[in-house]
Amino acid sequence: MRIATITHWAYGITVVLTALSGVSFILSSNSALQERAAAEEHLTLDTLAEDLALGAEMRSDEARLYVMRGEVRHLQAFRVQEAAERRLETVASDLAARDPAPAEAAALRAINAHADELDKLEAAAITAYQNGDKTTAQEALFGAEHERVQNALLQTVTHFRDLTAARTTAALDAARDRSNWWSLVAKVMLATTGALFVAVLYFVLSRRVATPLRHMTGIVSRLAKQDYSVEVPVNRRADEIGEMSDAIEGFRTNLIEREKLDAERRADQHMKDLILQMMHRVQACRDQLELTDVVVRFAPQIFPDLAGGLYVLNEGKTALARVGLWLDPDHSAAEFPATACWGLRRGRTHHSGGSGADVPCQHVDPPGVATLCVPLTAQGDMIGLLYLEERVDGALEPAGPRLYLELIAENVGLAIANLQLQAKLTALAVSDPLTGLFNRRFLDETLRRHARDHRDEPLACLMIDIDHFKRFNDQFGHDAGDLVMQFVRQSLREACASSGDAFRFGGEEFTALLPSFGEADAMVLADMLRDKIGGFALSYAGQRLGAVSVSVGVAVSPAGGSVETLVTRADAALLEAKAGGRNRTIAASNIRKSA
């Protein structure tokens, strides 16, 4: 039988028993109300009779005291007691009008008659006393007649109380008996209802509902905590519990599928977010070193199961050199010819090794390793290679990662091409085309930057001029002159390699900036440079060009003056060296001393 059918029957029987129990309680309550009414009536009648008797005695006492002492306060108290007794008599008359028992009605009439007779005697005595007849008044109040009437009143009151007590006590007992009987019936009904409820709880809720639900609650709790390893027991019951068990099993199956889809979606979204972050940073890189660092940082986060490296082609497009790697790839050389990679040859992604893979690349060792080579291109030109190899079997099988890798390769290739182009343009903007040294524009920029950021730090300047340079051009031709300039360039670059920067100032004049150099150190380096240049004889086209010499002017800042006047002071020292016979070094400070 289904649980719903059992509970419906139990519910119907419980409702009937509850209704009967309610009716019994109502009847018991009505009997209790009747019992209370009987008790209240008994108390009211008894109190009324007692008050009548006590009032009569107190009124008689006040009248007697008045005729004995003549004090007005006793007369006033008599009047008050008289008014109170009138009110009580009115109440007694009302009770008599409610159709009481014949004996009680006769007793009430007798009480009123005795009270009226007593009132007349006491009123006549007070009137006699007020008229001056004290003896008559005292005889009336203390005489046998007054005593007779008062005793008759008290006896009638006592008889009335006995009659009412007998009647109300009988009514009270009957009401109590009915209330107790209906209360017992209600209790029996409640006990039966409780027994039925306990039976339903035990046999239905406990054995058929609670125990299976307890097991299912544990299962649902584990499912809520995403513990999908829990097994739902097979339940063959043809009731609601069996249907619930089947529903939970279906819910578990759906949750497992949904969790798989959500995990794949989260992983894909996480990968896209990382790729987007990587592309934003790649586009903001200022040089190839920064770009390499970005790729090396993000690649293992995007593809944790793939080790790899970033390769860049040389200027001749003949060989690749690895500029960065992640997760320690083991199967590709750091450098190899461009022809060793099928990806570069074909200009498209090449998958080698693994199931259904293509021809292995020559730079992969051993050849059977699963690798992926993704060319880096920009506007149809090969820039480099994105090389990857599996750290976990099957990591390269899905098509999704390959699509993302090709997207990354496209953006990285464009970024590297842009950075290489920017480097070439920057080199052209700051370099002298003949000597390859920094040009005059970059010299001015370097001085401005030093004046802005490092004004108080030492800086030495060498102004260098090739002595009698026009002779080389006139006697041996301009190509020979270019050779002389390139020789001086090379000597100057070697001398300043670890000390500072070399510039072509213009014509046959060169400049060197030496940070952290004082005048003495700058003079030593200038003399060493002159000795090196003068100690080598050049030849061109089979002709000896002879020795080459240079004149050098030295100035320093801030000890010798401001950065803004540094080149001017060094140039003035150079002019002094040329005027003094050339092939010598003059410091700007010596010009001021001689002046």
UniProtKB/TrEMBL annotation:
Signal peptide: none annotated. Residues 457-590 form the GGDEF domain. InterPro entries: Diguanylate_Cyclase (IPR050469), GAF (IPR003018), GAF-like_dom_sf (IPR029016), GGDEF_dom (IPR000160), HAMP_dom (IPR003660), Nucleotide_cyclase (IPR029787), Rev_trsase/Diguanyl_cyclase (IPR043128). It catalyses: 2 GTP = 3',3'-c-di-GMP + 2 diphosphate. SMART domains: GAF, GGDEF, HAMP. Residues 207-260 form the HAMP domain. Gene3D superfamilies: 3.30.450.40, 3.30.70.270, 6.10.340.10. The keyword Transport does not apply. The chain crosses the membrane at residues 6-27, 184-205. Keywords: Membrane, Transmembrane, Transmembrane helix. It holds the Pfam family GGDEF. Its EC number is 2.7.7.65. It is an enzyme of class 2 (transferase). NCBIfam families: GGDEF. This is diguanylate cyclase.
